[in-house]
C-alpha cells in the first residue's frame, strides 16, 4: 500500500479509509476498494457473488446507479482474489463495513431456528394439552352434575390428566435419535444436537449457490496427468498446507521439476497465520 508517499507492507487489519492499495495477480483484496487504475485486472468473486467466472475490472465511473454487487466493475471487494493483471485502488470500507462484512453481520444476527421435529412436538403437545384439559373439564362437570364431592371431582380430573399425558414419548424419541446419531457417526458425520438428525433426514434436495460456497473458495488440485497419460493422485484439501503427491519413486524427479515450474510461474504468496493449520494470502503492498 501507499502511505506517507512510500510503498509499505502492512497487515490488512491496519488499513483505513483513504489508503492506497496496489493489487497484483495472486493476492487477496484486503478491503473494499474504488479502483483508480486497472490494467487487465481480473478478480474472482465467487465467495461473494457465487459466480464462478472472473470479473474484468475497470476504473472508469459507472453510468448507472443502484447496481448489484456483481455489476460494480470499478470496485474490488475484500476477501476476493486477483487472478491476473494489476490495479490501484483507494480503500472505501474495512471490517464489517465491507460487503463480505455485511454478510457476516447479517448471519450473526440470525437467531437459532427450531428443527422440524421440535416444531411438530410443540404442536402435538399443544393439541394433546388442549384435548386433556377439555376431557378433564368435561369429566369434572359430569361428576359435579351427578352430585360427587368436590374433592373426588378434583382428584378424578387430575388423575385423568396425568394418565393421558404420553410420558414415554420424549424418551422414545431420544432413544431413536441417539441410534440415528450413532449410525451417522460411523459415516464420519458429527451431530451436535440430536434433533438435527431428524432435520437432516427430512431433506430431499439440498441446493447450494455455486461450488465456492462449499469449498470456502479454496481450489485444490486432486490429480496430475502426465504426458504419458499416467494419472497421479494428490491428497489434502484447501489451503491448510497438508497433502502429498502419490507417485512412484521413479517419477519423483519429474514431479519435483513440475512443482518447481508451477511455483516459479505463480505470483501468489501464501503465509501461515497464527492459527494452527491456517494459511492466508500475504498482505498487499
Concise overview:
The protein is an alpha+beta fold.
List the helices and strands and how they pair.
Blueprint: E1 2-3, E2 6-7, E3 20-24, E4 32-44, H1 46-49, E5 55-56, E6 75-76, E7 81-93, H2 99-109, H3 116-145, H4 150-164, H5 168-185, H6 194-201, H7 212-215, E8 223-225, E9 231-234, E10 245-246, H8 252-264, E11 270-272, E12 279-281
Antiparallel strand pairs: 1-2, 3-7, 4-5, 4-6, 4-7, 8-9, 9-10, 11-12
Helix pairs in contact: 3-4, 5-6
Structural commentary:
The chain is α+β, with helices and mostly antiparallel strands. The protein has three domains: 2-108, Calcium-transporting ATPase, cytoplasmic transduction domain A; 116-201; 218-281, no CATH class. 36% of the residues lie in helices and 19% in strands. The chain is built from eight helices and twelve strands. The chain has helices spanning 46-49, 99-109, 116-145, 150-164, 168-185, 194-201, 212-215, 252-264; strands spanning 2-3, 6-7, 20-24, 32-44, 55-56, 75-76, 81-93, 223-225, 231-234, 245-246, 270-272, 279-281. Strands 3, 4, 5, 6 and 7 form a five-stranded antiparallel β-sheet that branches. It has a three-stranded antiparallel β-sheet with strand order 8-9-10, with no helix packed on it. Strand 1 (2-3) and strand 2 form a beta hairpin. Helix 3 (116-145) runs antiparallel to helix 4 and helix 5 crosses helix 6 (194-201). The radius of gyration is 31 Å and the shape is elongated.
Amino acid at each position: 500500500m501507499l502511505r506517507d508517499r512510500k510503498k509499505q507492507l502492512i497487515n490488512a487489519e491496519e488499513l483505513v479509509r483513504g489508503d492506497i492499495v496496489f493489487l497484483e495477480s495472486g493476492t487477496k483484496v484486503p478491503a473494499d476498494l474504488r479502483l483508480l487504475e486497472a490494467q487487465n485486472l481480473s478478480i474472482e468473486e465467487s465467495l461473494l457473488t457465487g459466480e464462478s467466472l472472473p470479473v474484468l475490472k475497470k476504473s472508469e465511473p459507472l453510468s448507472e446507479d443502484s447496481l448489484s454487487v456483481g455489476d460494480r466493475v470499478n470496485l474490488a471487494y475484500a476477501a476476493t482474489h486477483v487472478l491476473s493483471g494489476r490495479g490501484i485502488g483507494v480503500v472505501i470500507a474495512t471490517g464489517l463495513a465491507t460487503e463480505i462484512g455485511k454478510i457476516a453481520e447479517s448471519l450473526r444476527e440470525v437467531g437459532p431456528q427450531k428443527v422440524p421435529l421440535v416444531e411438530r412436538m410443540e404442536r402435538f403437545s399443544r393439541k394433546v394439552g388442549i384435548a386433556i384439559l377439555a376431557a378433564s373439564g368435561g369429566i369434572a362437570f359430569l361428576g359435579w352434575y351427578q352430585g360427587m364431592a368436590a374433592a373426588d371431582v378434583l382428584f378424578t380430573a387430575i388423575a385423568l390428566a396425568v394418565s393421558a399425558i404420553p410420558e414415554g414419548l420424549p424418551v422414545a424419541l431420544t432413544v431413536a435419535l441417539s441410534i440415528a446419531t450413532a449410525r451417522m457417526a460411523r459415516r464420519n458425520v458429527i451431530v451436535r444436537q440430536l434433533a438435527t438428525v431428524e432435520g437432516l433426514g427430512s431433506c430431499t434436495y439440498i441446493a447450494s449457490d455455486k461450488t465456492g460456497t462449499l469449498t470456502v473458495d479454496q481450489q485444490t488440485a486432486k490429480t496430475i496427468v502426465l504426458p504419458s497419460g499416467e494419472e497421479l493422485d494428490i491428497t489434502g484439501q484447501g489451503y491448510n498446507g497438508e497433502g502429498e503427491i502419490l507417485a512412484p519413486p521413479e517419477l519423483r524427479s519429474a514431479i519435483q521439476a513440475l512443482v518447481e515450474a508451477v511455483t516459479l510461474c505463480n505470483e501468489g504468496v501464501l503465509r501461515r497465520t497464527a492459527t494452527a493449520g491456517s494459511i492466508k494470502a500475504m498482505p498487499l503492498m
